[in-house]
Amino acid sequence: MRGVTSARRVVIGIGLILAVACGSGGQDATTLDSPSITQNVLTRLVDPLDDPGHYCIDVVGFGSGARFRDALQAHTCKAADNRDQQFTQRTQTGQLYMEEYRLCLQPENLAPGSELYLRECSDSPLQSFDFFGDGTIRLGEAGPGQLCLAVAPGDGEVINPIHMRRDLSIEACDATEPNLMEWLLSEESPERN
Q: What is the pTM of this model?
């Protein structure tokens, strides 16, 4: 089983390298097409910032205490039982679908600073995201990639000795530091140093 997981991680890595290599200066959308690459994976920030466990898109709360109707957050990537951090990229529609709750990622509105929620999946343009070769996830409805999925700047909030959190929102891509909006689709949580 460990060999299969390692092989899938290599496939994800190759797919992401190809996505970055094929992008033209980060301006063209790059979609990872293989369902084996995009199904039930963590969407994690490339730069760990102040969290050695990295930040993943996450539902507030855990298990029976999950508050999936609250705004989503960036939270330390969970090594186990991380279904409330797993998304599937629906390449046909651009949706980021969370199978655990059968809901899709959607910002509150098209304004910079809008929080992100899980909502009933629909044909709303607010659920259409494009993955760019530079690691950004851009809201497709906002024009030619003007709004990016980003974490809040500054220091993360310490929840307990091993978990941190940050606010998550859509922000103007050209006014946001790259390390706050470069994402990676990953099957496994990174190992803590």
A: 0.77
